[in-house]
Design goal:
The protein is an all-alpha fold and 109 residues long. It has one domain: Up-down Bundle (Methane Monooxygenase Hydroxylase, Chain G, domain 1), CATH 1.20.58.80. It has three helices and no strands. The longest helix is centred in the middle third of the chain and has 34 residues. The termini are far apart. The relative contact order is 0.21.
Length: 109
């Protein structure tokens, strides 16, 4: 694995961590009845998610280019990449949960 790839993967993982923290924080704020603050935290989480998506899209484009060229993309596949993918997927799930919980709590009060 190249240093550049490793840096990109850690960028994705770090952004995903910030994303999930914001979404969980939003659920906690909604539970306290602080709905506008919760929605603001979801928006901040969305910014982290965008930060994760950009380098992720670049990696997908690199792999697609390698496939077009008939080259082996095994250099891109590693445990760290799988972890980064997992973190991004969980971000998207946490976002949906946060939005649903905010709505649930908001309509409860």
């Amino acid at each position: 694995m190249t240093e550049e790839l490793e840096l990109t993967l850690f960028q994705i993982i770090t952004a995903a961590g910030g994303c999930k923290s914001n979404y969980i924080g939003a659920i906690q704020l909604a539970k306290e009845g602080k709905f506008e603050e919760a929605k603001d935290l979801v928006k901040e989480g969305d910014q982290f998610l965008a930060q994760a998506h950009d380098p992720h899209a670049k990696l997908l484009a690199q792999e697609a280019q390698l496939a077009v060229e008939g080259k082996n993309s095994s250099d891109l596949v590693c445990l760290l990449l799988i972890h980064a993918e997992d973190q991004m997927m969980s971000c998207e799930v946490f976002k949906q949960m946060a939005v649903e919980f905010i709505d649930l709590y908001e309509n409860k009060f």
